[in-house]
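Sample 1 of the test manifest.
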Amino acid sequence: MTSDRASFARARDTYSRLNGTPYGATVKLVVGFAFLAALPQLLGVSILGFSLGAFLSVNVLIVTLVYATAGQAWNIMSGYTGYFSFGHAAFFGVGAYVTSKLSVAFGINPWIGLLVGALVAGVIGLAVGFLNFRYDLRGHYFALATFAIALLLQVVVRNMEEFGAAVGIYRPFPGDYGAEFGLVAMQFREPNSYYYLILSFLLVVTVVAWLIKRSQIGYYLFAIRENEDAAASLGISPFRYKMFAIGTSAFFTAWCGAFWSMYVEIIRPSTVFGLTRNVEILLPSVIGGVGSVPGTIIGSFLVFPLSEALRVSFPDIPGLDTVVYGIALVLIALLLPNGVISLGDRLGWGESDEVNRESMSGEERPSDDD
Amino acid sequence: MLHLAVQSGVLEPLRELFGDLIGLNPVLLQLLVFGLLLGGIYALAALGLTMIFGVMDIVNFAHGSFLVLGMFSSWWVSSTFGVSPFLTIIVSVVLLFVLGVALSVLTIEPIIEKPEENQFIVTLGISFIIIALLEIAFGADSRSLGIQLGNYQVLGASIPRAQLYALVIALLSIVACWAFLYYTKLGRALRATADNRDAAWYMGINVPRIDHLTFGLGAALAGLGGGAIVLFSPVDPFAGETYLVKAFVIVVLGGLGSFPGALVGGLVIGLIEVYGSYYLPGTVYEIVIFGMFVVLLYVKPTGLFGAEEVSR
């Protein structure tokens, strides 16, 4: 027991020394992603008759990473600025539909589709942002306005025969637009390749999110989150930085949609633009810690594998996993209102300035009615 | 291409509507009846949401599941014990009130001052739990009371009785809520809390207790709505989402926390849905509803009847 504690203390020392170095965050990023890269291989490893593979499959990990990536993109907008978007499914859906439609109808490679979809989503994001910020919607109204955009896109697509109406679009065959299954076609025969593709997307978005957070812009965005009027009075243009955040966020959320459309069998308006999708995109960040870059990834790994493990564990009672899942959500929100990442703070694994900025958000955030 | 789409999609229905108006086509009256009936139900579904939204400033994502719970409890008591479905509405109301107060004490009060995303997560979690428990208890199949109440015939339009009763229930409950808010001391305390929470504290109002009461009443209204809906509509555990989304639109359209707003908003949505699905192709009426929702949020986020100074 004592040796356990001593080794824990030693590990903590190493961790805090690592944290203090200028390359600390880079080291954490590399170690974290190396672990994620090894994860599919670890599934089959059995320790004392217990193996992760019994509860999880690579497909669950893929879904987890899709939402970690989308959550990271959501975080750039909503986590950093405090403007809570409840409609990121709009951007997800645009990415999915543009990519699918271009490859099915015109034989255009999904990588080009991904880029086009991301640009379209970015423009829509800027338009939505322009309207929201121009009319100064905040708090619940901002959330409702973004939600409304996702709903509107859903019903518009559902009424367009060109986009398969309510039925949706089936995933095209690679031969229709590329040579064969593989990276060029963005479609694979086995899930492992999908896993590494979405992992690389996550890496890109995580690095971007991290760079933004560390940059001048990041400081401005967090200043806007803490007190927008004070930030404006210091000469920061909140409008410009909020527009940057929503544009970037929408752009990367569309990547996940594009990936999704090449991964699942069929995309439908009710699923890619739906209420549940909106929730799933923001959940990782909220569970992990709003505004926290590693927190979003941790949050995703808490939510989606848990839900799947519960489903596998209680196959006879459909719905029981959802009950436990719901209880977990309620408990996390009640006990850790600043996200799971704040647990590290409470246990005294004092992180440097990075978390201090995050822990501010809970108690001291000014209320909206001021 | 676009020209053609506009011609066939917009002009044709308008021409048709105009023709029916000129010719006094009786179908217009029938549609009006259906629209008002549907709108009344939507208004009833939105009442509890607008109350909780207005007083506590909480977006209650569990409202749809409250409605479904109200439908199921009314259906279950009625079909198990053979009680009249009109009486079992009372069971739904009481059940949901108790549940609402309990949930408010246990889950809402601890986080009401915390960042708003926690309210989203808590109410969503509650919603998942309720819907999944209903699925475990009753299965995913659709259930209905299977009662036939028949129709009234008025001026050539037929009025389904079950829906008419539901509309009457909606109107009565709106009047009752309004009377409670404006003619009782407790109602005044509720309005004071909605107006300014801090000032209400200073004036000696026990704000947490008002919150529990509000959440209980909001849930009870959902129970009432569910009990009324199950009179004519089948129920399954997932039926709540449609009503929840419509209720959001109605609450924004009518203005947060406004009961007359919820009624008018409900009727507007009901009329658009009924006329739209008759004259417009497919489900284009949904585009009209949500397009209106988006425009309204920007142009007049306080809604038709909302107070100007509502925080935004």
